[in-house]
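Much of our argument rests on the idea that a fold can be written as discrete symbols. The record that follows shows the chain in one-letter code together with its fold in token form.
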Amino acid sequence: MKRLFCFVSILLIAATVSAQEHLQRAASAKTTEKSFTTICQNPITSVKNQYRSGTCWDFATLGFLEAEILRKTGKTYDLCEMFVVNKDYMDCATHYVRMHGYSQISEGGSCDDVIDVIRNHGICPEDAMPAPGSLTGDSLANFKVFFPELETLVSGFVRPGAREPKPNWKAEAQALIDKYVGACPESFTFEGKIYTPKNFAESLGLNLDDYVSITSYTHHPFRQWFVIEAPYKWRLKPSYNVPIEELMDALDRALDAGYTVAWGGDVTGDFTRTGFADLPDGVVPSQELRQSQWDSWELTYDHVMLIFGKAVDENGKPFYLVKNSWGRSGQYQGIWYMSRDYIALNTTYIYLNRHALSRKLRRAVSR
């Protein structure tokens, strides 16, 4: 009986591996045979690599802000992701303690985290802090040891039955964060001038009040703000809710006007590692399908990237040019072609400059 069970198990494993290899080959072939014609392509900074860290939200949003500076001034900046990580994880730990433990200690985040960090703490250039991974002997950011250690530490600050948090918890949390990603500088020199993180942020010429989050779900009324119920959005910042057609129109308008757009959504489906994302044949995105798949957890909020252009494939099907943060990987060296249908179904929110919106929508989000 055991031998039969083992034999069947081996067959099942072999069949599973074979099926997976077939799907990978099919996805690769599907990508290889595609050709694209660019419709518009807005300037962006270089592709980076978040490596073994859940910081896509950080890399994508700083890439978005770097593109905003590039659009406005023509200057290229390399802003420091680990500065944001340091301040944001300390903010997250503080929120956890203030909530008496009824919160999430999250490696993930959203575009709002980066905006809040810069607003409250400032920012610095990449070379003003230790290079990602360098303090732990790695070549890039690797949080496989760091974040579980931080999670264990912070969860211990709120003890069952205690009338107050553990003494000196702030110093302990900050020391651990500094150990793995480096301490944030109080001042630094950039292009021959001494800055603090706050006045460096002010020198970038960004109005942080210009940036808004737009979403599209039916479990809240349209034309209103609400906080998207997603585990990684612990700051509880609201998004403005519109029908999906209006969200897609806002995305197209922004790109056509020369803006880039940060995108938060789901990449667990037909999102290949080769640089291509489309819906399966026969799947048509709709408001109803978006909602049902969100409510059933079939679609989640698990990745953030930067949309910077539009293209069509050999059949005239519309796609978007998307900058990822997995290094210069895939067929297009870190750039993904994601179909308009894929974006329409899988978007959790878009994050963009309100001046890129139609006059009507701009007035609505500015109230």
About this structure: The longest helix spans residues 2-32.
